Structure formats: structure tokens, C-alpha cells
Amino acid sequence: MLLIVSSCKTKQVVLNDNFKPLSERSTTNNWVMVSSLSDEFNDAQVNWNKWFKTSNLPNTTGWKWNNTQNVILENGVAQLTMRHNKNNVSDNGTYFKSGILKSKETFTTGYVEARIKGAVINVPGPKNGYGVCPSFWLYSNFDKEAQEGKTIYCEIDVVELQQFDWHNGHQDDIRDSDHNLHLVKKVNGKGVWFRPKKYPETQLNKYRLPDDPSENYHVYGCEVNETEIIWYVDGKEIARKSNTDWYRPMNVTASLGLRRPFVKFSNNANRAVNPLEDEEAKKQLQGMPTSMYVDYIRVWTKK
């Protein structure tokens, strides 16, 4: 049994074989914590035996990863920071570097949960938090040898915060969170992207948080089983979809990415914007650097 006490934790936590996800505390379901995929972040340094530090990180076109500079542990919390390159120096056409925690082990079915506070971009007006996306997600590698009709790549967004997304003619604000599915499937011999806005019934979920997630912690969870994917916020179910194609082994990941106005989405990728050549980006640049905070990441499998 492991006893964890920290001034930054909401309460004393006892982790043992009977400890369950927040939404499952009152059930009789049997869950076993997967220690290789779970982290309380109570050590002095990041346990890079569990997380990739420099290699095998996701390809990004809008920014670069630099975990040495941008991931630290403080008071039992992992802090992931997005920084503007000094003097706006271009790094292969990008202008920012950020932090990411990507598990070395993979996840297929079970339950993932993280307690997260988003990233403040403190600028005048209503655009606090506009420009970055704190995320907790699962994603696979690409299986180029997948058979016709099968999954090449799958991604489950447990939560994406602060996207300020446009949806049905309305722009979300900072309290709107996204809990979506992404997929690349072999169709007629080629890899075809299936994005949530084109397939909302099977891949898109939105939720209205009770407060500003950049100022407050919330617990974001997701159960993935052979038939369904079920999302939770603070232990409350907020959405579920059929699990038709999300069966490839996935890495458990927390990261801080860029969004508009620092990038523009085209051809299935976020493309870098020079923040000194875009008036809206210049305004938001006043709020950099900024950080998201991860209190814990916990992963379970069914007994």
C-alpha cells in the first residue's frame, strides 16, 4: 500500500488493489491499477523510465517538443510549459517549444484518469487561454500494413481544453471542452482520415465545464472496452460512443499544444504561424510562457 500526502493534493490518497477510478468508487467493479502507466508525480524528478523524454514523440508541424526545458515536477504536480523561442528564432519553421508526457507502455482496454488544470494566457479582454490546448489523450502508431477496412491509426481524446473551436456557427469559449475520436482507416488501399466534425454521431463529443479549466482542476476519465468508449468529468459520465475501430495499442499522453492564432490547421496538421507577423498572435504572445498542470495520471485494467 502506498500513502501519498502532498499540500497540492486535494486530499490524502491511499492507492492499493481496491482503489478505483473516481466514477467507479461506489460500484462493485474490480479494477487493478497499472503501475507502469500511472504516475502520482511525487518524486523530485520525472520518472523517465515510464515516459519518453526525447525519442518516439508525436510528429508536430506547428511547434517542437523539449522536455528537458519544459517538464518539471513541483509539489507533487507535473508542470508542462509552452515557450516562445527566444528572439522569435525559427526552428525548422516553428516558433515555440513545449512539454509532453508520453508513456513507454501502451494501453488497449481499461480506464484512464488524470487530474488536470489548464493553461492561463493572461491577456486583456475575453481571450484568456486562447492559443494553447492542454490535452490528455491516447494514440497509436501507424500500421501501414493494415488490411482493407482495418485501422491504421486511432486516437482517443480523453479531453482537449481551450480549443475555442467553431461548431455549428458558434465559437466555443474557455469552458467548452472536447472529447473526440480520430481515425485513419484503410479504404480502397489508402489511408483515409475520419475526423469528428465530419462524423459527429460516431466521433464528436462536447461538454460545458462548470468553470474556467485554466483556473481550476478537474478529473478527466475514460473507459475503453471492447464495445464502448465512455468519457467522464469529475466522475460524471458525459458521453459514450461505440468502439468500432479504436483497438490498436495506444500510448497514454498528456501534452500542451498550440492552437489559433499561433497555428492554422490545414491538410490534417496544425501549421506554424510567425507570431510577430500576425496581429492576433502578437496580442496573445503577451501571455507566454504558459503551463498546464497534471496532478496525477492513473490507469486501470479490469480484474
Can I get a quick summary?
The protein is mainly beta. The chain has helices at 67-70, 200-203, 279-284, and strands spanning 2-4, 13-15, 31-33, 51-52, 64-65, 71-74, 77-84, 96-98, 100-107, 110-117, 132-139, 151-160, 166-167, 170-171, 176-178, 181-187, 190-194, 206-208, 218-224, 228-233, 236-242, 250-258, 263-266, 269-272, 290-302. The longest helix has 6 residues, at 279-284.
Helix % is under 10%
Assign an overall shape. Answer: globular
Count of alpha/pi helices: 3
* Arithmetic mean pLDDT: 93
CATH class: Mainly Beta
- What portion of the residues fall into strands of 2 or more residues? 35-45%
| Total strand segments | 25
What is the radius of gyration? 19 Å
- Residue ranges: pLDDT <50 for 5 or more in a row? 1-11
Family: Belongs to the glycosyl hydrolase 16 family.
GO molecular function: hydrolase activity, hydrolyzing O-glycosyl compounds
Keywords: Hydrolase
InterPro entries: Beta-glucanase-like, ConA-like_dom_sf, Glycosyl_Hydrlase_16
